[in-house]
C-alpha cells in the first residue's frame, strides 16, 4: 500500500476540507468534548471521512484519522493522495503519535496532511515532517 503523489487540485482540497470539517459533527466525544473530523482523498478520487469515537475506558477510543483510514482500507482502497484533519481549536491540531504511525503504514514521507482549525484555516505538513525517520512496511524484510 502506498500514497499516490499526484498533486491535490484546488477543487479537491475544497471538497477534502469541507468533508473533514463536516465530519466533526458526527464525532462521539462525550468525555473530552474534543471533536475531530478527517477525510482522505483516495487515488481513485473518492473521499472517505471519519470522526473520533470515544469510550469511557479512554484508551479504547479511536481517532478520526484511524477511522477514516480503516474505513477506506476495508472498502478496498490501497493508495491515497492526501488527508485533511479538522478540529475546533486554533491553531488546528496535528494527528497524535499513534495516528501518525498508523497513517505511515499506508503513506509515504511526502504524503500531505492538511490540518484545519476552528476557523477553517489550515497548515499543511508531510508525513515526513510529522514523523521523521519513521518505521514503515518497507523497513521489514519481504
Report the C-alpha radius of gyration, rounded: 14 Å
Terminal CA distance reads 14 Å
User: What structural class do the secondary elements suggest?
Assistant: alpha/beta
How much strand content do the residues show? 15-25%
Low-confidence stretches: none
Question: Mind explaining what this structure looks like?
Answer:
- Pfam families: dCMP_cyt_deam_1.
- By secondary structure, the chain is an alpha/beta fold.
- The chain contains 4 helices and 6 strands; from the N terminus they run βαββαβαββα.
- The protein has helices at 10-23, 64-74, 97-104, 127-130, and strands at residues 2-3, 36-42, 47-51, 79-87, 112-116, 122-126.
- Strands 1, 2, 3, 4, 5 and 6 form a 6-stranded mixed beta sheet that branches.
- Strand 2 (36-42) and strand 3 form a beta hairpin.
- The radius of gyration is 14 Å and the shape is globular.
Amino acid at each position: 500500500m502506498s500514497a499516490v503523489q499526484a498533486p491535490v487540485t484546488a477543487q479537491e482540497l475544497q471538497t477534502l476540507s469541507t468533508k473533514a470539517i463536516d465530519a466533526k459533527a458526527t464525532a462521539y466525544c462525550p468525555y473530552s468534548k474534543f471533536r475531530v473530523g478527517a477525510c482522505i482523498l483516495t487515488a481513485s478520487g473518492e473521499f472517505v471521512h471519519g470522526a473520533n469515537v470515544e469510550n469511557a475506558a479512554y484508551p479504547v477510543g479511536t481517532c478520526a484519522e484511524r477511522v477514516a483510514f480503516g474505513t477506506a482500507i476495508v472498502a478496498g482502497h490501497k493508495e491515497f493522495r492526501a488527508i485533511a484533519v479538522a478540529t475546533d481549536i486554533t491553531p488546528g491540531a496535528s494527528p497524535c503519535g499513534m495516528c501518525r504511525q498508523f497513517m505511515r503504514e499506508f503513506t509515504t514521507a511526502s504524503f500531505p496532511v492538511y490540518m484545519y482549525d476552528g476557523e477553517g484555516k489550515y497548515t499543511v505538513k508531510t508525513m515526513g515532517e510529522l514523523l521523521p525517520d519513521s518505521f514503515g512496511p518497507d523497513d521489514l524484510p519481504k
